[in-house]
C-alpha cells in the first residue's frame, strides 16, 4: 500500500515537479536572454556614439528618432561653449536687424514726416549686416571649422551690444511717435468705415423717404374712393347742370389758381384762405384737377361747401381744349416713348440717386397739372391778376394786400430764395450749354413757386407763354435743364420777376426742422415744400399742427379713412 502511494506520488508528483521545473527554468532563461540582448544593443549604440563624436554628417545615418535625440544631447554637452555664445550673439543681432527693418518699413510708410529717422534706421540695419561680413569676424567666427577665437568673439560681442543699445535707444525714442501715428491711422480707418456706413444709411434713408413721399397714402386713397362711392350711390345730389357763376370772370374780385389731384390738400388751402380773409365773399378759387379725381373733388365741395360766401370753380385739365399736343410742347414730350422709358423703366435706378434728383425725376412731373401755371392768361382770359398757390401751402393771414402791390410792370411777384451761393441760377440751369451761358447770369437769384402773384396783362404783353414754348422746345433732350417746372419758370420770368418781402412766403416746412417759429408765425403763407408733406406719416411733427388745424375733421369720410391727424 505504501509502495503504491509512493509510486503514485512518484509518478504523478514526480511528473508534475519535472514539468514545473522545466517551466521555471524556461522562464528565467528567457528573461536572461532578453536582458542580455538589450545590454548588447545599448553597448553597441554607445560605442557608435563615442567613436564618432565630431562628425555631424553621420547624424543623418542614425537609425531611429530616439538615437538622434541621444546624439543631439551628447553633442550639446561636448560642444565648444564659445560656439553657443556666438550663436546667442548672432541671434540677438538678427532679431534687432528684423526689428530695425520693421520700424524702417513703417517710417517709409509715413514718408516725409520722419524721413530723418528712416535714414537712421536704414543705416543701423546696414551696420548690423556689416558686422557679420567684416573680414575678421567672417573668417574667425562664421567660416572656420576650428575653435572660436575668444578675442575676436569678444570684439564682435562688444560691437553687437553697442549696436543693440543704439537700436533700443532709437526705438524707445521713436516708439511713442509711431504709436501715435498708428493710432491716427486706425482712427482714420475707423472714420472712413463709419463714413461709408453713414453714406449707405443716408442713401437708404433717402430711398425710404422717397418711397414714403411718392406713394399714395392709404388714407388719401380711401378718401377718394369714399367720395366716388358717394357720387355713384347718390347721383341725383351731384348733377352737372350748374351754370358758371359771373364771379368766376369778375376781375374786381380776388382770384386764386390751385392745380392739384389731392382732395384734402386743396380743401386745407381753401379753408385757410377763407378763415383768414376779412371779406371771404370776394375770393374766388379756380381749382383744376385731372379727370380721374374731378368727381371726388366735386363731391367734397358739394358736401362741404366753401365757407364765408367764397366762390369755387372746379374743372379738369381736359376741359381746356387748347391744351393739346399741337400747341403744348411739354405734352408732346410727355407722350414721347423716350421720356416714358426714362421715367418708368428706370424708376428703380432713379430712386437710388440723390434726393433732389429723385424729385426732378419723379413721375409727378409727368402730370400736365404742374405745367398749367404757364397758361394762366389763356385759361382765364378776362382776369387781370391771379394768385397761384401750391396745394402744400397754408395761408395764415389775409392776402388781399398782394393785389395792391405795384409790380412795376413785371409779370411775377415772388419771394427770392437765394442766400450766399445757394439757390442761384447756376444750380438749376446747365451753364455749360452756350445758349444758357449767353442769355442768363449764373449768379442771378432764384425765386420760389408756391405763392406767386401774376399780372396777366403784363404776361400777355411780354408774351411769356411764347418764351416758355421756345425754351421748352430747345430742351426736348434735357440738355438745358433737368425736368421740373422751376427751371423753365426761372427762364420764362428771368427779367420780369418782382421780389416780394420774405414774410409773404416762408418755405422749407417739408424738409427743414430748424425754421424759427417766430418766422413761421409772422408769415402770410407757409409752404411744406419737400418730401415730408403734412398729410404723410413722415411729416415734421413741430409743423404738422399748423396744417391739421385747417383739416375739416367734421367731414365723415375723413374720420372713416383714419387720417391720424
From TrEMBL:
SUPFAM superfamilies from the UniProt entry: Nucleotide-diphospho-sugar transferases
Pathway: Glycan metabolism; pectin biosynthesis
Pfam families (UniProt xref): Glyco_transf_8
Subcellular location: Golgi apparatus membrane
GO molecular function: polygalacturonate 4-alpha-galacturonosyltransferase activity
Organism superkingdom: Eukaryota
GO terms for biological process, alphabetical: cell wall organization; pectin biosynthetic process
Family note: Belongs to the glycosyltransferase 8 family.
Membrane topology: Single-pass type II membrane protein
Location (main, coarse): Golgi
Gene3D superfamilies on file: Spore Coat Polysaccharide Biosynthesis Protein SpsA, Chain A
Organism: Castanea mollissima
Keywords: Cell wall biogenesis/degradation, Glycosyltransferase, Golgi apparatus, Membrane, Transferase, Transmembrane, Transmembrane helix
Protein's UniProt name: Hexosyltransferase
GO cellular component term of the entry, any: Golgi membrane
EC annotation from Swiss-Prot or TrEMBL: 2.4.1.-
Transmembrane regions listed in the UniProt entry: 32-50
Enzyme class, first EC level, given as a word: transferase
InterPro entries found in the cross-reference section: GAUT, Glyco_trans_8, Nucleotide-diphossugar_trans
CDD domains: GT8_like_1
Amino acid at each position: 500500500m505504501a509502495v503504491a502511494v509512493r509510486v503514485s506520488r512518484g509518478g504523478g508528483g514526480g511528473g508534475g515537479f519535472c514539468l514545473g521545473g522545466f517551466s521555471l527554468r524556461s522562464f528565467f532563461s528567457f528573461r536572461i536572454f532578453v536582458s542580455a540582448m538589450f545590454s548588447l544593443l545599448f553597448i553597441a549604440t554607445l560605442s557608435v556614439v563615442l567613436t564618432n563624436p565630431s562628425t555631424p554628417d553621420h547624424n543623418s545615418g542614425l537609425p531611429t528618432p530616439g538615437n538622434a535625440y541621444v546624439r543631439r544631447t551628447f553633442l550639446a554637452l561636448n560642444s565648444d561653449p564659445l560656439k553657443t555664445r556666438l550663436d546667442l550673439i548672432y541671434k540677438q543681432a538678427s532679431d534687432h536687424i528684423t526689428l530695425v527693418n520693421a520700424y524702417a518699413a513703417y517710417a517709409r510708410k509715413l514718408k516725409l514726416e520722419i524721413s530723418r529717422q528712416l535714414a537712421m534706421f536704414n543705416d543701423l540695419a546696414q551696420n548690423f549686416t556689416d558686422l557679420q561680413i567684416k573680414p575678421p569676424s567672417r573668417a574667425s567666427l562664421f567660416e572656420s571649422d576650428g575653435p572660436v577665437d575668444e578675442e575676436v568673439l569678444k570684439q564682435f560681442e562688444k560691437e553687437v551690444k553697442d549696436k543693440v543699445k543704439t537700436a533700443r535707444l532709437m526705438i524707445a525714442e521713436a516708439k511713442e511717435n509711431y504709436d501715435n501715428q498708428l493710432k491716427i491711422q486706425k482712427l482714420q480707418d475707423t472714420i472712413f468705415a463709419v463714413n461709408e456706413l453713414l453714406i449707405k444709411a443716408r442713401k437708404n434713408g433717402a430711398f425710404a423717404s422717397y418711397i414714403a413721399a411718392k406713394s399714395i397714402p392709404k388714407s388719401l386713397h380711401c378718401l377718394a374712393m369714399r367720395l366716388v362711392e358717394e357720387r355713384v350711390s347718390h347721383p341725383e345730389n351731384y348733377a352737372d347742370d350748374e351754370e358758371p357763376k359771373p364771379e368766376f370772370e369778375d376781375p374786381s374780385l380776388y382770384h386764386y389758381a390751385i392745380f392739384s389731384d389731392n382732395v384734402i390738400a386743396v380743401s386745407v388751402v381753401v379753408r385757410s384762405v377763407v378763415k383768414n380773409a376779412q371779406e371771404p365773399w370776394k375770393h374766388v378759387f379756380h381749382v383744376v384737377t385731372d379727370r380721374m379725381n374731378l368727381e371726388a373733388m366735386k363731391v367734397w365741395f358739394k358736401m362741404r361747401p366753401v365757407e364765408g360766401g367764397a366762390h369755387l370753380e372746379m374743372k379738369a385739365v381736359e376741359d381746356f381744349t387748347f391744351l393739346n399736343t399741337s400747341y403744348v410742347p411739354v405734352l408732346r414730350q410727355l407722350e414721347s416713348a423716350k421720356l416714358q422709358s426714362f421715367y418708368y423703366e428706370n424708376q428703380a435706378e432713379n430712386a437710388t440717386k440723390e434726393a433732389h434728383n429723385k424729385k426732378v425725376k419723379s413721375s409727378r412731373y409727368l402730370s400736365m397739372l404742374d405745367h398749367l401755371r404757364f397758361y394762366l392768361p389763356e385759361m382765364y382770359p378776362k382776369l387781370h391778376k391771379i394768385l397761384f398757390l401750391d396745394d402744400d401751402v397754408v395761408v395764415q393771414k389775409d392776402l388781399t394786400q398782394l393785389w395792391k402791390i405795384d409790380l412795376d410792370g413785371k409779370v411775377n411777384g415772388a419771394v427770392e430764395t437765394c442766400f450766399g451761393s445757394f439757390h442761384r441760377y447756376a444750380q438749376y440751369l446747365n451753364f455749360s450749354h452756350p445758349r444758357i451761358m449767353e442769355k442768363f447770369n449764373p449768379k442771378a437769384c432764384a425765386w420760389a413757386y408756391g405763392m406767386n402773384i401774376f399780372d396777366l396783362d403784363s404776361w400777355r404783353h411780354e408774351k411769356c407763354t411764347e418764351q416758355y414754348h421756345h425754351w421748352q422746345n430747345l430742351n426736348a433732350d434735357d440738355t438745358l435743364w433737368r425736368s421740373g417746372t422751376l427751371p423753365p419758370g426761372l427762364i420764362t420770368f428771368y427779367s420780369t420777376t418782382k421780389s416780394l418781402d420774405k414774410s409773404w412766403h416762408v418755405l422749407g416746412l417739408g424738409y427743414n426742422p430748424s425754421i424759427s417759429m417766430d418766422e413761421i408765425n409772422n408769415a402770410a403763407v407757409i409752404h411744406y415744400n419737400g418730401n415730408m408733406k403734412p398729410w404723410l406719416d413722415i411729416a415734421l411733427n413741430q409743423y404738422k399742427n399748423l396744417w391739421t388745424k385747417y383739416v375739416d375733421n367734421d367731414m365723415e369720410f375723413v374720420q372713416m379713412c383714419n387720417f391720424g391727424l
